[in-house]
Amino acid sequence: MSAIVSVKGLGKTYEGGFEALRAVSLDIEEGEILALLGPNGAGKTTLISIICGITNPSGGSVTVGGFDTIRDFRGARALIGLVPQEVSLEPFESVINTVRFTRGLFGKKRDDAYLERILRQLSLWDKRADRIMTLSGGMKRRVLIAKALSHQPRVLFLDEPTAGVDVELRKDMWEIVRGLRADGVTIILTTHYIEEAEAIADRVGVINNGELLLVEEKNALMARMGKKELRIDLARPLDALPKPLEAYDLRLTDEGGLIYTYDTSAEKTGITDLLADLRHAGLHMVDLDTRQSSLEDIFVDLVREDGP
Length: 308
Prior knowledge:
Layout: E1 3-13, E2 19-29, E3 33-37, H1 44-51, E4 59-64, E5 67-68, H2 73-77, E6 80-83, H3 95-105, H4 112-121, H5 137-149, E7 155-159, H6 167-182, E8 186-191, H7 194-200, E9 203-208, E10 211-217, H8 218-225, E11 228-234, E12 250-252, E13 258-262, H9 271-280, E14 285-292, H10 295-306
Parallel strand pairs: 3-8, 3-9, 6-7, 7-8
Antiparallel strand pairs: 1-2, 1-4, 4-5, 9-10, 11-13, 11-14, 12-13
Helix pairs in contact: 3-5
């Protein structure tokens, strides 16, 4: 796959000296779903705003489909659909007119068949004549997506697309995103819900303090940085670690059992030696259980290491 969005050395410093982005470089491949993770104030929205031409960078460059976002703004912006965090819609207008109007703003000819397909895909067709003010919060978010898709963009930015919606609707939105990717749309989403990235993203980027810490294929990242935990339940609970076991990466559970953390990619996990030493220490096991670290664990560790 080739890069449809290319970011090179992007920086943004606001008045007063606050540095929101620091030399960010990123290639986004055509047809992928990229999830950008980061805490509040990390720089996610600033990065999206610059790529979409809403905010000017202090340095660096961005191209979308080969168009420079400053020199060829119209060409770049025509390829981009943006779903912002805030729901800002004309409350007295109907759904269909709202979407038609946005399509017209991009100079596109009227195409009711295309808009019908989009509204059906977003489960909005039955609501097409309804005023925006009568819709639920989740439906309003779907209207935002329909507006962003109205001019048939090749790249769709979703800035916290499921913020404030319930779990069931969030999963519906995941299916919508997968369907859009199947139609060839490149999708970049920012999210606070790490399970969202784990469920639908092809690649994951982690940003903190204005710096892009990594961008990596999701499964490869979890295999490379993920760890496993072995939980050991004992016949007699422990109050403290016996001296022969202090050399291991062990911690006590609230119930007096043990948790051993190990790297699955290491040549040796150390489990065999640990179990032998448990027997030598006179500890009797009643149960063993393993748990794979999640993307959330990896994210928290990365942000903690990058923190002040």
